[in-house]
Batch of 2 targets.
Target 1
Amino acid sequence: MREKIVFQVKTTRNQKLYDAIIIGSGASGGMAAKELTEKGMEVLVLEAGPPVNPARDFSMHTWPYEDMYRGFGPPGWRNIDQWMEDTAGHFSRHFYVKDSENPYTTEPGKPFLWVRARIVGGKTLHWGRLSWRLSDLDFKAASHDGFDVDWPIDYKEIEPYYDKVEEFVGVSGNHDNLWYQPNGKYLPPMNLTCGEQLLKKGSEKLGRPGITSRVSMLTAVKPHHKKYNRAACHYCGHCGDGCDVGAMFSSVSSTLPVAAATGKMTLRPNSVVRHINVDPKTGNAKGVSVVDRVTYQELEFQGKVIIVAGSTLESTRLLLNSKSRQHPNGVGNSSGVLGHYLVDHFGGISGMGVFPTLAGRDPVNEDGKAAGLFIPRFRNLDAKTKHPKFLRGYGFECSSGMGRNPGAGRFPGFGKEFKETVRKWSTAPVYMTTRANMLSRFENFVEIDPGGTVDAWGIPVLKIHIQHSDNEREMAKDAAECIEETLKSAGAEIISVGGNMTAPGKIIHELGTARMGNDKKTSVLNKWNQTHDVKNVFVTDGAAFIGAANQNPTITIMALTMRACDYIEAEMKRGNL
Amino acid sequence: MFAQDNKQPSAKDAPGPKPSVKLYSIFALQRDKAFTGEFETSKSKYKFTFAPKSAQVENGKLRLTGTFSVGARKVENVVATLASIQGGLGTVPTAINERPLKSSSGLPLTEATDIRGFVGAMYFHLSPIKAAALGLTIDMSKVQLNARLFPTSETERELQVVFSDVASALYGATPNANAAAPHLAALNQIF
């Protein structure tokens, strides 16, 4: 008789009870680890991806000519197993997931580009670093224009946390005194190039302030930066390949070392969380089930508090997958709102020109700095700036200066004349691109794929439903017109303006899907990032956002995380957690 | 700077998933008319091919029937049911990119959407495979085939367009089996 093969999986239950289990080690998870360990709590940080070793994994100062493929990698490498990892370069590809192991699904004709970084440090290893506070124009947007609902917090409540985060992280920038783009605690700003100064003047002629971008990069080193061996930026421009001097904020340079130094953090990489386990008697969370990314060993960990910080959509996926008798639609989903109101900023509407006044000058090193010019939102700030065709607004990220790539592809021709043309104009380019608000709408949502698609560990994946509305399209049309107007005002010769709006997800500012709110029937979290339904589960990443505004979200995510950690400490002291 | 154990493999040399008990998903590239790839278990790496021979629509789902092989060992009549798709981004297939857009509002469009949308990956559920027939000792009772469409030949380009059309007809908000029929015929002609 043939032997029957029995496939059996054993689960190993870890008996230790942690004060908090933190899922994710990026901007939010790292900040939660720092804050809670500094408060004396024992935390377990579970990271789905591999560990990181800067000496081995960062490729800073590797030049394209050192690589046989000149930094581009062998033909088709990205298309073969990292096709959605839009910002991955051949030198940084290991910071990103393999799409071949991590599916998600969409509807035909409605693509979503989901860039994911499963690795210790998460997307902070290669983020854009622009660090803008939101203002009450954003937190109370519904009160301004009547669309959707206000956040349950206002600027005054979060302001002290912005202060603390900026001081800890190290943000360079100016005080520009714009009420809708609040000042912060800044290190000295990075300088604008000649072209950026010309563009700033051109924009200001139109009544639209242009300001130096505020970035989480050290332009000066304070004692708390020095303590963890962070150095000032040396303008090499290799930020996206891993900054091994720690000038750029990342969890690996900043928050995790602080948490590790307390001796109270246990970090377990390669830990893919399957679901949150709940106590059948109380309905509260008691821990998490994990599968090891490599070995497939099944594990369970126990914690008094669960902080879900795996990035916007991964967090929501985990909550949706955490179904139980007490929470049949997933943890935190008694409202049915979990997964809804997905947004991403959009870009793609851009312009490029050249400044004749800067053409043919001697080459200078202008390409290493992270901060260019930013033209903050100028539409729908008040009655005077109200636009008749759309709500909310957009800003422009702008840059000008010589780069490593002289832009030969922009010019026709060949031979000596062609080379002279390229050299002449390579000193004078100017670029503008849009970062625009997408309205939060219920019909843009994620769900667990009804087709039953799973990832490499058998965990059900998300199906993402999202598309732009006419509000975004009208905004895009206006942005293209304003780019042209600004370039002309600055004295640039225009080479191109316009383009298609980026597919949702491409700006990597996916937000919402577990929104905050005061009403548990219409929101997932309360104003402290705590789920209405399960008091010891907190969601501290971008999933908590009510709306996208048009500013980069990471500094707000960190401020909200810090605030939630203060609340957790207070509630624990009160015996409520 | 926070660094973990120097002796452990870190991100650059991190090992991939190596199941020992159950195979959940396998990844393949469409190459010519088949899907070829490699999977790893705790024991070894295996190259495989799924070669569809026919296509049908059943219960509103696309089903491909064909041969699944690992090396010289084969399992015939494996059915791959298309569970879901992932829309593609980047270079739109020429045949799709040339389609006239219906939008006449004059407002900017979103890249790779509407009738210029196309399929970048397809997720098939394979019928249970007796792993022993392939010389393997792992549970292959419910394997998902993650099929990436990244065409490099005329046949592959043609198949991507047809798969995109089938997906539009069957997997959108309003599935329409009749609309899929001509594309299904095209698919069978290619197979």
Note: The helical segments of chain B are 94-97, 154-170, 177-190.
Target 2
Amino acid sequence: MSSIIKVNNLYHEYTIKNNGKKEKKVALKGINFEVKQGEVFGLLGPNGAGKTTTIKILTTLLIPKNGNVTLLDKDILKSPGYIRKNINFMLGGERGIYNRLTPIEYLKYFSLLYKIKIPDNKLMELLELVGLEKNANEETIGFSKGMKQRLHIARVLINNPKIVFLDEPTIGLDPVISEEVRLIISRLSKKNITVILTTHYMQEADDLCDRIAIIDEGEIKIIGTPTFIKSTHSDVKFYEVTCSNLDEVGIFSVEEIRNLAIKTIEGGLKLIRFEYPVTSTIKEVQKEINQFCSIIKINIRDVTLEDAYIKLVR
Amino acid sequence: MIALRLLFFNLIKFTDLRNKFYQWIIFCQPLIFLTILYFMLKVNPAINIDKYIFAVGIISAWSFILYASGTALISEKWGGTFELILGSNTSLFRIVLTKSVCNSLIGLLNICLTILYAQIIYGFEIHTSNLILSISSLIVLIYSLISLGMVLAVLCSLFNNVFEYQNLMVFPFLILSGLFIPVNDLPLIFQPISYVIPMTWSIKSLYDSLIGIEFSYFYLLGGILISSFYFVLTYIFISKIELIFRKTNKIGVF
Amino acid sequence: MSTNFFTLSYKALYSYQNVKTYLTFRVLEPLFHYLFFASMAYYIMGSEYLNFIVIGNVIYMMVHTLIINITVMLRFDKIYGTLPYNIGSPTSTLAIMFKRLLIPIIDTILTFIISSLTVFFIFNIKIEFEMIFPLLLLIITIIFSLCGIGIIISGLGVVFKNVNLFLNLSLGLFQIFCGVNFPLSVLPNGIETIARCIPFTNGLLGIREVITNSAEMNTVLPYIYFEISIGVVTFIISIFVIKTLEILSRKKGVLFFD
């Protein structure tokens, strides 16, 4: 499958004011990645890592200081007009909506900006896709965050884009609405639309993305499928033990036990969580722990994307 | 003591002189009006200019108070801090009062800056026939502006698009307070309204002290009394707002 | 449902959405402005300047309406967070601004009509039937020459966090240098020459000739030509400025500041 996005040595810096003095802050330190057509590609990273800067550059809103970026085989600097016709984006949060317009009017306004004639029934289809058909003719001023996010997704689809950029589409939403938004996103990928997604929710990225790039301090730390990322960081397993008579000093002295956390639970019992090298079997771990407490229950859990992420960016 | 510390905190932390709109009102607007005045005086040089220079200062002071004190209460709601100050030990009235005093002090700075501009940039010489009375009138004017600021804080919380209504309020107050038109020259129907505005009294008092006509303490005293009346009125209103907010979680229309 | 660009932009971005609010702000606000400057002029310059000041300020309010409305349109987009979506669309920023100009232009013409009626009733300043055509021409030329200025200020609002200082300063300078509140002749010689090259000055001179001296078309034509020439220059400058600012905003990433 051909690459629809090619990012080569992308570098960008901002000038910021710190106590009245101008300082340069490097946002992207020459990153490289490619995205294939129809892929859901996740960009993960802490705040200020460079995710949104990358999105702004790819959506032609920001001119990079250095590097080459091509979308749909066109250079973003040479053909921004062509690229804009074929992509769309949302920048996250509930802003970006005209409060006095109804969803239908809002979509109509952007269809005019995208220079496309869309019949009202097609607009209604878009609103149905995001579950806003019943609110089609209500002013958006009273809309909840979730409704606004879903309206953004409808807007993003107004020009039948080949690539969509979704910057934190579920930020601030309750779990039910977040799940609805995730369902909509997964439907997009089935339509062969390439989705570039940024999010702080690891489970969301794990569920939705075909591949993920973890970016931190302007550098890509790792890139690959969620399974690949998790596997490269599975040198430990995660244990959760319920026990009594815990020797806290003793257990802290075990060299193999990492990131130990102890919590008192009902009945004076203790819940301990820790990481242990993957080379040891559960029986070996049990034997080791038994020296410091009486085990009531022991659970083992696999590495999650969140574990891998925390290890990478910590 | 707490009130003084609050006032100091407001002056240092909450007087946002980086706000471009306030920069405009404090530093640029007096220059524009003084330039207009300067060229108007070229048409008719024989006129007594002292009171008009003060008028320009009062225009800026009033504009600042209108916008800054006018949003004193509602901006707390916008910023999500209204609940926090309401839950504190200090009464809402005292908090709004310190904000209004702070803004009126900036207003005084406006007037001083205008006089400085007038002397340094435009070479106007400013005279007063009785310095003590002029200073007393200025103090009463500031007292009036504090009380008016309190009224505005309450009044502006009633409007949804507050800034637009503030734009609508700039000139009527200046016209009615006798800044350029003496209140006695206004149509009869408007004269009682003029005297309800606290700064009308202190402006008349200030102008009389500058020009040197027979000074009447009546206006000075009137300014103090009517301003004090507004303090009582706003105290009652703010207590009501506090109560309504506790019941409805709303101030005015917000 | 009316869904052309004009009505959607109006509904999305314009402050005054009903007749009552519109009239409040287009009758009362200008009226207070005229009364204030009229009182200032009356007591400082004398009663003979009353009409001079009122006419100057009626036209100034027109300019005020036009420039503020052009400026706030992109400003509101910035406040609502819709600016990146507008600028990131295939329609150029300049095209969006030009398309949106119609609303401020209509509002400006309505402001003039309303103000003409107001000053007729309050100050007894009459516009005779034969004045309408030259006045209309002069007003259109002033609007044309000021659209460029409005576009420039609006563009600055995209790049800078707050455009209010530019906006108020420009409006203040118009009040001083365009002969709104005093005759241009009191300005120092060099400054008077510069003042005559600023948009709005010549148009206002022409309008005063028509209303005060009942001047005929051939008397005001030089003012119209001059105002149009200045307008063409400001329009060309505005296109250049917007193109430059568009690139600058993409380089600096300033579209996203509140």
Note: The longest helix of chain C spans residues 217-252.
